[in-house]
Design brief:
Pfam families: ATP-synt_B. It is found in: Membrane; Plastid, Chloroplast thylakoid membrane. Keywords: ATP synthesis, CF(0), Chloroplast, Coiled coil, Hydrogen ion transport, Ion transport, Membrane, Plastid, Thylakoid, Transmembrane, Transmembrane helix, Transport. It comes from Rungia pectinata. The protein has 184 residues and is an all-alpha fold. It has a domain of 107 residues. It has 3 helices and no strands. The longest helix has 134 residues. The radius of gyration is 69 Å and the shape is rod-shaped.
Length: 184
């Protein structure tokens, strides 16, 4: 083990002139090493890093472009939907107005039809009353005529004797004969 530690200790004692070796001074070697590593990374990694950043930038731009296109499409659809909504609202208002006017028209028609029906029923009632009155009057006339005829027959039967009865029959036959001659 002593040989390994001696070799590291001996590295720190190397001569400066004309030889190559390790510098064990941490403060002196770290900034140089870091600058060399960073320089190599920048020199060789610059293209890869630029490509990665460009690819990322393109993906972001494409995503933004797609989002803008989708937003534009959504705005167009929204405008079409709003226009359709306005059309539907206008049609609904027209249907509502037309419906109210049709309801009022139907109401007026129904009222007029009801008045006409009532008027017809009133006319039928009046006609029925007139018919019934006429029938009652005719029945009364028939009864009065029958009673008058029965009274006249009763009076004739009581006042007529056979001779008067024969003369009346002969006169009536004569009148019938005269009427027959006129019609022939």
């Amino acid at each position: 083990m002593k040989n390994v530690t001696d070799s590291f200790l001996s590295l720190g004692r190397w001569p400066f002139a004309g030889s190559f070796g390790f510098n064990t001074d941490i403060l002196a070697t770290n900034p140089i090493n870091l600058s060399v590593v960073i320089g190599v990374l920048i020199f060789f990694g610059k293209g890869v890093l630029n490509d990665l950043l460009d690819n990322r930038k393109q993906r972001i731009l494409n995503t933004i472009r797609n989002s803008e296109e989708l937003r534009g499409g959504a705005v167009e659809q929204l405008e079409r939907a709003r226009a359709r909504l306005r059309e539907v609202e206008t049609e609904a208002d027209q249907f509502r107005v037309n419906g109210y006017s049709e309801i009022e028209q139907e109401k007026c028609n129904l009222i007029n039809s009801t008045y006409k029906t009532l008027e017809q029923l009133e006319n039928y009632k009046n006609e029925t009353l007139q018919f019934e009155q006429q029938r009652a009057i005719n029945q009364v006339r028939q009864r009065v005529f029958q009673q008058a005829l029965q009274g006249a027959l009763g009076t004739l039967n009581s006042c007529l004797d056979n001779e008067l009865h024969l003369r009346t029959i002969s006169a009536n036959i004569g009148m019938l004969g005269a009427m027959k001659e006129i019609t022939d």
